[in-house]
Every structure is written in C-alpha cells, then in structure tokens.
Design a protein that fits this description.
CATH architecture of the largest domain: 3-Layer(aba) Sandwich
GO cellular component, one term: cytosol
Strand content: 5-15%
CATH class of the largest domain: Alpha Beta
Cofactor: pyridoxal 5'-phosphate
Helix content: 40-55%
Shape: globular
Protein name: L-threonine aldolase
Largest sheet: 7 strands, mixed
Structural class: alpha/beta
Radius of gyration: 21 Å
Strand order of the largest sheet: 2-8-7-6-5-3-4
Number of strands: 12
Family: Belongs to the threonine aldolase family.
CATH superfamily of the largest domain: Type I PLP-dependent aspartate aminotransferase-like (Major domain)
CATH topology of the largest domain: Aspartate Aminotransferase, domain 2
Pfam family, one: Beta_elim_lyase
Length: about 375
C-alpha cells in the first residue's frame, strides 16, 4: 500500500471512531470554518472591521495586548509563525548585545526543525552548553568556555520528551546567564502548559526572561500564529524585523481570532490536561504490559506537561498497522494521527502522546483496557 493510500485508510478509520484518546483526525475545512465563526464571536467582536497589516486597533492588536497581559510584559508583537518570531528576536538581541552567538540546546527547535535558518538567514552562530537530553544546568551555563550574547531555553524541551527542570533549577540557570551578561530568551511555544509543573503562572515564568515567544496553535488549538513578549522598545524593534522577514501580512484575522478563542477556551483547561496526562501515561504502561507488550515505557514516567513519549521495542510499521487495525475494528483509537517512528535504533519505536479535551472522556480503566487490546495485536 502506498503512502497516500495508507494515510487515506488512517483518516477514514479515525473519522469512523467513536472516540480517540490523542491526536484526533483533522477537521474538514467546513468544520474548522464553522468552529472559528462560533468561537471567534465568543472571544471578540466579529462585527468590527478586519485587520489591515496588523494595525493595533484590530483583532491582531487585541491578541498582542492580551498576550502581554497574560505574560506580565509591557508589550507583545504578533507573528505569522514561531520560526519567524524567534529569528527576529534572536537577531534583535544580537544587535543589542554586540554578540551574534546564541547558546541553546542541540535538540531545540531552531537546530532541529528550521534548516539552519539562524545561520543561513540571520547570520547567527549557535553553541551548546550541554548535549544531555535536558535543559542546561546553571553550572554548564556559567562554566561554558565561549562567550555568548543570548541564552535560549526551550520550555519544555520537546525532542527530549517534553521535559522541564525544577523551578529552582530554571531560576539558577537564568541567573548564571545574567552573571555572564547574556540576555535570556524563552522558546515558550508550549509555555502555557508548563505552569502546573512549576507551580507558577505564565507571567511568573515569562518574568524570568528578557523575551519570551509563545505559540497559539501548539497547545491552544489556533490556526497558526505566535507572539513575542518583551519590553516596549524591544517589541518596537521586533516589529521592524517582522517587516524585514516578510511577516507584515495584509490580513491575519482568521488566525488571530483563533488565537483569542484558544486563550479564552483552551488556556483554562490546560491544567486538567496536564493532570490527566499523568493518569493516561500510567494506564498506558499498565495496559500494554497486561496485554503482553514487551517493555512499554513512557518518558518521562510522570509527564511534566500534557505531552509525553511512548516507547515500545517493535518496528514502527508493526505498531502503526496495529493502531489503524484497532481503530477500524473497535472504533476506538489510542494514538490518532500520531505515528510511531524509529528515531534511534531499528526496532525501537516512539510516538508522542498529547492529552487534550477528547482524552478527558477516557478513564484510566478505559485507557488500560484499550492498551491491552492494542498489545494483543502485536507479534
């Protein structure tokens, strides 16, 4: 079966499911438009004029004001993508510090998913205080042998398993950067769901840094879009860089409306997702083991956010076939659109599990039972 046919089979199976634990099937265009019309009207006056090149007296300006308020910052700038947002921010800091070197983790998004854009587009250089699958410690930042102008911290570190340090560790790492006269930028694409782990508000977390980027689609269910919060003078410069990078879009009201809807509807729900993810991870391990799967592991054992990794020692194609067959035969799906892949060793597979609104309908026993059924389909 070809890739197109395989994906069509998966989508059809998910559409027919009575319920999906994680990563449900994508909405149709008509479904997404209808939801945007309803949720957008609940979050903003949709009788107002559309935006015009991101003017502040529009829905885009409202997203910026609301983001700044939630993050306890003087101002925020809206960007069409997170990649552009961080390009502009790190380039601005390079000019202000006089140092074009950015210290970040080798698993961070700019290093793994942006085709070397920091160097190719912005002329920046990156260094890595640690290669361990966690954020750098205070000692690693303080003792790093090369100077750098900006320390970028991804919260959580997605590729390492959505992992976070303790609050005390994070504060110490930030203080170590300050001792070196470096500015601190937070890649907070998933900052919103970090609050329960730290026991702090998003504003408390953002207050540690000189700038923070947040996404409106990764956890909040928006169409697209991002923002960077910082001081008013930095945000003014970011708007200039946004124009240079091609982010001065004529109209962005659909994405901006969906951002406001996400802040209104999803943001208050995130703590319940994070709490339920701990139960889901435990039930997955127990159910898979009961069903006969070898060495089921979630990483972290207790998730730090509402997302975590599931590892199983089977080829990815075997696991993906079992997943779609289970969906077809039981009309229940554990993993939805998420596929297993073999990132390190052949035959050792991983998938990411995101616990959101649909997952709240699953009890631990529901997850355990479905996981045991899934395991029974494995060789």
């Amino acid at each position: 079966m070809g890739q197109v046919e395989d994906e069509a089979r998966r989508v059809a199976a998910l559409k027919a499911c009575r319920r999906v634990l994680a990563n449900p099937a994508r909405e149709s265009i008509a479904e997404r438009m209808a939801r945007l019309a309803q949720e957008g009207a609940e979050a903003y006056d949709t009788t107002a004029p559309v935006d015009f090149y991101g003017d502040e007296a529009s829905v885009v300006g409202e997203v910026e004001r609301r983001t700044a308020e939630l993050l306890g910052a003087p101002a925020a700038a809206y960007f069409p993508t997170g990649t552009m947002a961080q390009q502009a921010t790190l380039r601005a800091w390079a000019g202000r510090t006089g140092n074009r070197t950015v210290a970040l983790h080798p698993l961070a998004h700019p290093e793994r998913h942006e085709r070397g854009a920091l160097t190719a587009v912005s002329g920046l250089r990156t260094v890595h205080p640690t290669t361990d699958p966690r954020l750098p410690s205070a000692a690693e930042v303080r003792d790093f042998e090369e100077p750098f102008g900006t320390l970028m911290l991804e919260l959580p570190l997605r590729e390492a398993g959505f992992v976070l340090p303790t609050w005390e560790e994070l504060v110490a790492t930030v203080e170590a950067a300050r001792e070196r006269d470096a500015v601190v930028h937070l890649d907070g694409a998933r900052l919103w769901e970090c609050a329960p782990h730290f026991g702090r508000s998003p504003a408390d977390i953002a207050g540690l840094a000189d700038s923070v980027y947040v996404s409106f689609y990764k956890s909040l269910g928006g169409i697209s879009g991002a923002a960077v919060a910082a001081s008013a003078d930095v945000v003014a410069e970011l708007r200039a860089w946004r124009h240079r990078y091609g982010g001065q879009l004529f109209m962005q009201f659909p994405a901006a409306l969906s951002a406001l809807a996400g802040l209104r509807n999803e943001l208050p729900r995130l703590p319940s997702y994070v709490a339920h993810a701990k139960r889901v991870a435990r039930a997955l391990r127990e159910g898979l083991a009961e069903g006969g799967a070898t060495w089921p592991r979630t990483h972290p054992d207790e998730p730090h956010t509402h997302q975590f990794q599931l590892w199983l020692p089977y080829p990815a194609d075997v696991l993906n076939e079992a997943a779609v067959t289970q969906a077809e035969e039981t009309r229940e799906s554990l993993f939805g659109r998420s596929r297993f892949r073999e990132p390190d060793l052949p035959g050792l597979s991983m998938t990411e599990v995101t616990v959101a609104l649909d997952a709240l309908d699953w009890s631990e026993e529901d997850v355990r039972r479905a996981a045991a059924d899934f395991a029974a389909r494995l060789p």
